[in-house]
Amino acid sequence: MDTPDYKALFDSSPELLLIIDADLTIISTTEAYLKAVNKLTEALAGKNIFDVLINEAKEPFAGSIDDIRLSLKRILQYKTTDTISIPIHTSDKPEIAINLKQYRLTHSPALDESGNIKYIIQRLEDVTEIETLKSLLERKIKSLEQIGASEKRYYMMLMKSPFAFCIM
């Protein structure tokens, strides 16, 4: 029986994954990750994650670098999974708002036999559609609440009026 080629399995995974070591050097990425962030493997492997992020930072993603730094710090300190939400431009033209996507970024530690962090797995999940739907739902709920309040005021106005009304 042949030994499974885990590297090929990892590379072809549909998940958006990036592997970094405890020194925050990028080890590997899935093809799906590279496609999502418009990068080439050669541009990432062997570089410090923050060197890559700072060089590629565009507003409003630049503000998320501190969030990523804090998330990785928590991973290294507590050796537990950490999740944050960040915006990422998927175009070289940041002024095009439609190319701004919202991602959930999850960092998970991979420990060695001694319980020390050997690798950190970064998983990106595109939550743009979910966040958009949540926003629409919140606006709809607010609109319904305003309509309810308006109907209540109208009803109270009719009931407290000194004049008789006839509704046909």
In short, what is this structure?
Helix content is 43%, strand content 24%. Strand 1 (16-21) and strand 2 (26-29) form a beta hairpin. It is α+β, with helices and mostly antiparallel strands.
- Counted by DSSP, the helix tally is 6
Taking all Cα atoms into account, the compactness measure Rg is: 25 Å
Q: How far is it from the N-terminal to the C-terminal residue, by CA?
A: 85 Å
Return the average pLDDT rounded to an integer: 80
Spatial arrangement of strands, main beta sheet = 2-1-5-4-3
What does this structure look like?
This protein has 168 residues and is an alpha+beta fold. Helices cover 43% and strands 24% of the residues. It has six helices and five strands; from the N terminus they run αββααααβββα. The protein has helices at residues 6-11, 31-36, 41-44, 49-56, 64-78, 128-160; strands at 16-21, 26-29, 82-89, 100-111, 117-126. It has a five-stranded antiparallel beta sheet with strand order 2-1-5-4-3, sandwiched between helices. It is elongated, with a radius of gyration of 25 Å. The relative contact order is 0.12. The model has no long low-confidence stretch (mean pLDDT 80).
